[in-house]
Design brief:
Layout lengths: L3 H6 L15 H5 L4 H4 L6 E2 L11 H13 L12 H13 L8 E4 L2 H12 L5 E6 L3 H9 L3 E6 L9 H7 L4 E7 L11 H13 L3 E5 L26 H6 L2 E5 L2 H4 L7 E5 L2 H9 L10 H13 L1 H25 L13 E5 L9 H9 L1 E2 L1 E2 L10 E5 L4 H16 L2
Parallel strand pairs: 1-10, 3-4, 3-5, 5-6, 6-7
Antiparallel strand pairs: 2-8, 7-8, 9-12, 11-12
The structure holds pyridoxal-5'-phosphate.
């Protein structure tokens, strides 16, 4: 286990912990977060991307230490270590060694995305999205008066078609907003797809905004590769040229179940973007609260073993879901996710309308995310969050299977 500069600088992050704890239904219902409190008490929620795993003890301790001391004054203490801790985490888990001096701390992932779009693209510019896509990406464009350049993934395997991507770019296209690994499909883009993105970005001098918040939660058969670190994978200087046009955004929020704490980081490889960010008044970057920064710092310092346990737990849930769909919902379309704890499921064959989640909420009392929110082509799909106990996942699937068997 590393101790390193953070220990030297003061904060103590406790001992690593490997055991995964999953909340029971009654423990989850006692929480005030939106996942378990939005719907009536007879509904089982599997929608928003919060896990039913208890966040690790070292993250809770980091917040509890601040609370115990009442250490709530203005503070830079935890925030200023995050760039270095993020860089060390990336090096250990993904083989990428970003320069901490190029890492900026943001309040959340979408904040970094919004600033990048605002600072480096103009109203009317086209921004590429690979649809279906995490719904706030679509909103990120509307709010900034940017134009959607829709590049649908191929529904047979959710692959990126390089020709479709190249053909979609026009001279007012200025950025690709990439979700890698991909929410909702769980794809981990392979070498060919990554190279296709790199070629288009460099050829058209685009900004690549690479949201890699799911990068740690990859199943064993896939490997996440940061887009800013493709130097050794790509021919010639293409990787370096790509890195010089990329902002990589990440957080501890998905990996360690900390979304309510609001803290993210971005590695800004694009010099024009870095210059514009540096010129902003500090308040335009926001200021992360010390609990979020302390928890993220703890996770990136001692979270290695916990992550290994969480990944194995989540792979078991994914496999459980795949088996249950095959056995009990055989008409549902599902392609095994390579990453995330999300399942993108086509319920079109059951013919319960374009919004199957509404039908299922009413008849099965399960709450799923509506496919239509994920952009063009999402009608008839649902997104199901599998990060719960095996028992609850079975109950959710029992309810769906019973209701859908009746149609
Ligand atoms: C692709 C993607 N980006 C960003 C976020 C939001 O992350 P945060 O709220 O931690 O900033 C999510 C949440 O599910 C996500 O799936």
């Amino acid at each position: 286990m590393r101790t390193g500069s953070v220990t030297r600088a003061g904060p103590h992050y406790g001992r690593p912990m490997t055991a995964i704890e999953v909340r029971s239904e009654s423990e989850s219902r006692a929480l005030r977060g939106i996942k378990w409190s939005r719907d009536p008490a007879d509904v089982l929620p599997a929608w928003v991307a919060d896990m039913d795993l208890v966040p690790p003890a070292f993250a809770r301790d980091a917040v509890a230490d601040l609370a115990r001391l009442g250490d709530f004054g203005y503070s830079r203490h935890h925030t200023e270590h995050l760039p270095e801790l993020f860089a060390e985490w990336q090096a250990r888990h993904h083989g990428w060694s970003p320069d901490p001096a190029e890492v900026v701390v943001f309040n959340d992932v979408l904040h970094a995305i919004a600033q990048s779009i605002h600072l480096l693209t103009d109203p009317g510019d086209g921004i590429v999205l690979l649809t279906p896509i995490y719904p706030p990406f679509l909103k990120a464009l509307d709010g900034g008066f940017r134009r959607l350049v829709d590049v649908p993934l191929d529904p047979d395997g959710w692959r990126l078609d390089p020709e479709r991507l190249a053909a979609a770019i026009d001279d007012r296209t200025s950025a690709i907003l990439l979700c890698s690994p991909h929410n909702p499909t769980g794809r981990v883009f392979d070498a060919e797809e990554r190279a296709a993105i790199a070629r288009v970005v460099v050829e058209h001098d685009l900004l690549l905004i690479s949201d890699e918040v799911w990068g740690d939660l990859v199943h064993p058969e896939a490997r996440h590769r940061p887009m800013a670190d493709l130097g050794r994978d790509l021919d010639g200087d293409l990787g370096n040229q790509l890195a010089a046009r990329t902002i990589t955004i990440s957080a501890a929020s998905k990996t360690f179940n900390l979304a309510g704490l609001r803290c993210a980081v971005a590695h800004v490889g694009s010099k024009p973007l870095a210059r514009r960010l540096a010129a902003l008044p500090p308040h335009a970057l926001g200021a992360v609260g010390s609990p979020g920064a302390a928890a993220a710092g703890a996770c990136w310092t001692v979270g290695h073993e916990w992550l290994a346990s969480a990944r194995s737990f989540l792979t078991d849930r994914r496999d459980q879901l795949a088996k249950r769909l095959e056995d009990d919902l055989p008409a549902a379309g599902y392609q095994l996710a390579e990453a995330t704890y999300l399942a993108w499921i086509d319920l079109g064959p059951y013919d319960v309308g374009p919004e199957p989640q509404e039908w299922l909420l009413e008849r099965a009392r399960v709450a799923l995310s509506p496919g239509g929110d994920f952009g063009p082509g999402g009608a008839g799909f649902v997104r199901l969050n599998t990060a719960t106990s095996p028992e609850l996942l079975d109950r959710i699937l029992d309810r769906m299977a019973t209701a859908l068997a009746a149609v």
